[in-house]
Amino acid sequence: MELLQLKYFQKVAKIQHMTKAAQELHIAQSSLSRTISRLEEDLGVSLFERKGRQIHLNMFGQRFLNRVERIFTELEEGTEEIAELQGIENKRVVVGATITRLLPDLFKEFLTVHPDVKFQLFQFSTTEIQEQIQQGTIDFCISSPPIHQSGIVSIPIMTEEFFLAVPQNHYLANRRTVKLSDIAEESFISLTMDYSFQESIYSLCIRSGFKPKIMFESNDLEVIGKLVTDGFGVAFMPAYWWKENKVNSPVKIRIDSPYYQRIIGLSWKERCYLSNVASDFREFTIQYFSHN
User: Fold this and answer.
1) Superkingdom of this entry's organism (predicted)?
2) DSSP states of 107-133
3) Cα–Cα distance measured from residue 163 to residue 216, given in angstroms and rounded to the nearest whole number
4) Burial degree of 239 (CB within 10 A; 0-12, 13-18, 19+)
5) How far apart are CA 37 and CA 111, in angstroms?
6) Mind listing the pLDDT tens digit of every residue in the chain (292 residues)?
7) CA dist., res. 291 & res. 136, Å (int)
8) Is 4 exposed, middle or buried (0-12, 13-18, 19+ CB in 10 A)?
9) Phi and psi dihedrals of 143, rounded to 5?
C-alpha cells in the first residue's frame, strides 16, 4: 500500500466521481481506476458502490476514509513539527467560529505581540465546526455552546447575556425588563436553527407557554438588527451586538423571566500537535477573555 494510493482514494471519496477526480489529480481516468482497484485488492474488499461514473463510499470505504484522513493529518503535523525543530516555524493559525464578531479585537491584540502571524478564519454552523475540528482542518474553534465530544478539549472562555431587541417606536421600548410571556404575540426575526443557542431560546419560549411566530430567518445579525430597526419584528440578540455605536439601533431590553445567557468556549483537538504560535494563541485567548 502506497501513500499515492491513499491520496487518490481520498480525492475520489471526496468528489464521488471518477472522471472529475482524475481531472483534479491531472491523471488519466484509467490510471486512477487501476490505482483504486489495486488498493481494493490489497485490502480484500470493495470501498465503493459504483453506478456508472457516479460512485459512493460503502461501509468499508467510509471507515477506511476516516483512517486515511487521520494519516494525512498526522503527516502534516509531523512535517510542521520537524520544521519547527529546524527553526522553520509555522506562523499560521486556522480558526473556525460560530461567532465571528468577537474575534477582530482578539486578533488585533494578538498581532501586536506576534505581527508575523497569519490567520485564517472560517465561519461554520455548530455541526460543521465539529466535523472540521475532528478532521484537523482547523486549529481551534470558538463556539456556543462549547463542543462536548470525544477527542475534543473545550474550555469556557466567557458567558454572554441575550436581550430583546425592539424598534425604537415599539410599545415596549421604554421598558427596562420584559418577561417572555409579555411578547408571546410578537412577530420574531430569528437566526437560523443551525445556531444551537437559537434552539435554546426557542425552547424557552415553548416553556413560557407560546410558540414564537418567526417571520424571517437569517444567519446574519446585522440583517436581523436592520429588520428590527425597520419595524418588521423583534429579535433576541447577544449583548456584544450593541457594543459598537450603532446609528438608529434597536432598543435593548433585558429579559428577566426566564433569564438566558450562553456559554462561549474555545475548543481544540485532543492529542493533536499544535505549533508554538498556535499554543501561544490558545493561551493568549484564554487570558484575553478572562480580562474582557
Assistant:
1) Bacteria
2) HHHHHHH-TT-EEEEEE--HHHHHHHH
3) 18
4) middle
5) 49
6) 788 888 888 888 888 888 888 888 888 888 888 888 888 888 899 998 887 667 888 889 889 988 888 888 778 777 767 766 655 466 889 999 988 888 999 999 999 999 989 999 998 877 888 888 888 889 999 998 888 888 899 999 999 888 999 999 999 999 999 999 999 999 999 887 556 667 778 888 898 899 999 999 887 888 999 999 999 999 998 888 887 656 678 999 999 877 788 899 999 988 777 888 899 999 999 999 988 7
7) 29
8) exposed
9) -150, 165
Q: Report how far apart, in Å, the C-alpha atoms of 107 and of each of 34, 112, 118 are.
A: 47, 9, 10
Residue listed under C-alpha cell 436592520: 226
Strand partners, 56: 49
Bond preceding residue 258 cis, omega within 30 of 0: yes
- List all residues 6 or more positions away from 69 whose beta carbon is below 8 Å from its beta carbon: 10, 135, 136
Full set of structural domains in the chain with CATH? 3-82 (1.10.10.10), 88-157+263-290 (3.40.190.10), 158-262 (3.40.190.290)
> What grid cell was written down for 104?
477582530
Pairing of strands 140-143, 213-218: unpaired
pTM: 0.65
> What local confidence, expressed as pLDDT, does residue 287 receive?
94
Phi, psi values for residue 238, rounded to 5°: -70, 155
